[in-house]
Amino acid sequence: MTKTNRIAFQGEPGAYSHQACHDARPEMEALPCRTFEDAIDAVREGRADLAMLPVENSTYGRVADIHSLLPASGLHIIDEAFVRVHINLLAVPGTRLEQVEQAMSHTVLLGQCKKFLTRHGIHRVTGADTAGSAKHVAELGDPSLAALAGDLAAEIYGLDILARHIEDQGNNTTRFLVMSRDGDHSRRGDDGMMTSFVFQVRNIPAALYKAMGGFATNGVNMTKLESYMVGGSFTATQFYADIEGHPDDDNVRLALDELSYFTSEMKILGVYPADPRRH
Length: 279
Hints:
elongated, single chain, Alpha-Beta Plaits, D-Maltodextrin-Binding Protein, domain 2, lyase, Preph_deHydtase, 35% strand, alpha/beta
């Protein structure tokens, strides 16, 4: 397929996913998409070269649906990116803080700014997403309604920042995965490597315990292990895992070999350099 020099993300221009695109791939054009599925399809269909997908937030936890979308996407993880989520209170130009009666944003951000909003008597209003809320505030032009979003949204929609970094948690960070049509296992990162994969264990007693044993005995650090249902079945469970290391490393190879004895299915989603901010 012809290279487009575009990277797709879910949300309106100015969303935190847009910020992640801007930070990780500043040379590429960011392509906004309505849903995560649309961002994936943009890459599969050749309208974008890469997709930027959020997978987890240090305050909120796992991003819903992403782990179930990745295995069927046909895409490969080629990088990870950590974005510090600074939340600002945005309003139409000339607004004073005491004029703001309501703040609109995605429900996740509203929950991350409870202390500030309560202290200033500002009521929470749920919006579709962060940048979409900023766009709505700009179009409405009502100083009593503000938005919770990032610096990029303020710049794009011409809003004033009334208060900066109002999030309750000082380490609020979102991890993103950069997805491509083609995988690349040849690279080695200065800060180590990560391998992400999904697997289903065989229907035998203690299968998960036995499957995990190889990582412990071979000294492979597993940084994430999450389970989710497959096809709405209560008996079919798929696991998503991140480990430190490369499949060509002796200890990782041995651990994955042992895993295969106790799994009915295993698929590597990506082998990629660890982001230095991981540590």
